[in-house]
Amino acid sequence: MPVLSVYQQLAKSAEQYAERPFLHIPASALSADSGLAEPILQAFDASYADMLGVANELREQYRNIGLRIGDRVAILLQNKPEFFAHWFALNGLGVCVVPVNSELMVDEVSYLLGHSDVCLAVGFSHKLPLLENAAADAGLKFPIVSDTNISSVQLTDPGAEEVKGVSLQNISLQTECAILYTSGSTGKPKGCLLSNEYFLNSGAWYRDAQGFCKLEKGVERLATPLPLVHMNAMACSTMGMLMTGGCVIQLDRFHPKSWRETIRETEATVVHYLGVMPAILLNMPAQDGDNFTGQIKFGFGAGVNPVHHAPFEERFGFPLIESWGMTETGCSNCITAIVEPRHVGTSCIGKQPAGLDIKLLDESGHEVAAGEPGELLVRATGDNPGKGFFSGYYKNQAATDEAWQGGWLHTGDILRQGEDGSFYFVDRLKNVIRRSGENISALEVEATLSLNPQTDQVAVTAVPDEIRGDEVIACVILAAGAKPEEETAVQVLEQARQSLAYYKLPGYVVFLESLPLTASNKPQRAELKKRAREIVANIDSHTNCFDLRALKKK
CA 368, CA 360: separation in Å to the nearest integer? Predict the structure, then answer.
């Protein structure tokens, strides 16, 4: 019987790897933001059989309250065991999950809940106020319950024929599995519709990977600090382990001081990273236990600073395998430096993989000359160019059509191709700031800052940050009477804190007399980015630019 869903893959893997460990979460990660007065002292461990058993129990609870194929449920369950169990259970009914980032503000959650059309929201008890306040602010009416109290609600008559009809036969590869929200150039986050096929293809890519990323079935232990509300942790690490009988070591987040100890204690063989992680680890004092040769086979991630790449591999004893991908592409359509030559320290992401068509275009829509940078366009080879990609942006056909203009996915990323066929990441074309792995919409931040009465005009862009990749800078023209001083800059940031997640706040605020504008009075993005970078690079000589990065705390 073919596997048509994530739940079915879990059931299949549980037959083959029943007693093998599927999930390990250290006690420290369980304790983080747990809502409990006392820390949790024991790690969580679940075998494949354990996880299937828990998922089946929850699946029946969800079935009994009347969930049906095509329904959507918001889950605010952080990087905890409950996230996996509820996701698998809901997927087993053909129900789509909408993961909610607990670090978002009420306004941000309100938009997500309203836009996604969920019929139910489930979260930890201490997180329910965030969901309840967000729903109330948006005037939304649907049940909001704790993860341990599912049976307290009733959505439809559990005896109705349409509910009885929920079975594996009704679920297909195209059934919705998740909606993940990603910030883009249009301001408000866009909901990426992701099918069962998307997740299964992503897992299959990892299962079949060769070279540096070859996984040994029933052996690997993959440690990731990345959030389960993102594609990497859900579709890449989880599905990769699920399809090879490996163990997911899910951390709550990246903790630099304890990372080395955690990796050793959990016996991880693979680690996932973001570019910020190597930078931070290299800045820490060297220790005798830094080298993981013989334990860690490889690190898989993106965005390592080129100057950190070789020094990290030498000091820590394993290769960092750089990859390019997006929520829209999934893992099955990524580009990865999976074999030599990796061209370490050059932002190389590898050569064109089998099954993926690639071309680079200039601003006029023409293919660039060899070695010249251009926007990356991708599609699956064959007669189904969208195979393994996202199913579209929910309730935004115009954005979907724009992304797939001409039958190619326009990524908004600038690449160049070297003489040997290797691709190199250059820059981003879109108004997206990539800070510590989080995509931040410049327009969303601009909209929030413009509400401050002290600002007249605001333009937001990215400036380089040695640790985090990008940092947010707000270029502000002040309203009459406002003073271009640090106190004003801090006030601009603090007011924005009421509406934006901490990582979206401006790390720099610079007060300018004018902004570079187009003929239609829109910010001239390329010139703005260039000017902002020059200002930050020479910040000591700019009295109206203020470094507020120390105030960007969770």
Answer: 6
Which pairing describes strands 508-511 and 438-441: parallel, antiparallel, or unpaired?
Answer: unpaired
Count other Cβ atoms within 10 Å, centred on residue 326. Answer: 20
For 352-406, write each residue's pLDDT tens digit: 999 999 999 988 899 999 999 999 999 999 999 999 999 999 999 999 999 999 9
R_g of the chain, CA atoms, integer Å: 23
Whether the upstream peptide bond of residue 341 has omega within 30° of 0, thus cis, is yes
Question: Which among 434, 437, 498 is positioned nearest to 472, based on CA atoms?
Answer: 434
- The residue among 252, 251, 316, 306 whose CA lies nearest residue 469 is 306
CB 63 within 8 A of CB 7: no
User: What's the pTM?
Assistant: 0.86
**What amino acid occupies position 306?**
P
pLDDT, tens digit (0-9, with 9 covering 90-100), for 219-244: 999 999 999 999 999 999 999 999 99
Predicted pLDDT of residue 219: 97
87's tokens: 């996701």
Q: Please, which residues have CB within 8 angstroms of residue 297's CB and are 6 or more apart in sequence? A: 212, 220, 269, 270, 318
Q: Based on the number of CB atoms within 10 Å of its own CB, is 405 exposed (0-12), middle (13-18) or buried (19 or more)?
A: exposed
Give me the DSSP letters along 56-70.
Answer: HHHHHHHHHTT--TT
CA atoms of 368 and 374, how far apart (whole Å): 6
Distances (CA, A) of 480 to 454, 485, 506: 8, 14, 22
| Cα 481 off chain centre by | 41
Name the phi and psi angles at 460, rounded to 5. Answer: -120, 140
Give the tokens for residue 328: 């829209």
Residues 6 or more apart in contact with residue 542 via CB below 8 angstroms: 510, 535
Where helices occur in 352-457 by DSSP H, the ranges are 397-403, 442-449
Q: How many Å apart are CA 109 and CA 354, to the nearest integer? A: 39
Interval 190-205: pLDDT, tens: 999 999 999 999 999 9
DSSP 8-state assignment for residue 499: T
Who wins on pLDDT, 151 or 467? 151
CB atoms within 10 A of CB 1: 6
> For 363-391, b where at least 16 C-beta lie within 10 A, e where not — what string?
eeeeebeeeebbbbbbbbeeeeebbbbbb
Task: List residues bridging with 508 in a β-sheet.
Answer: 473, 547
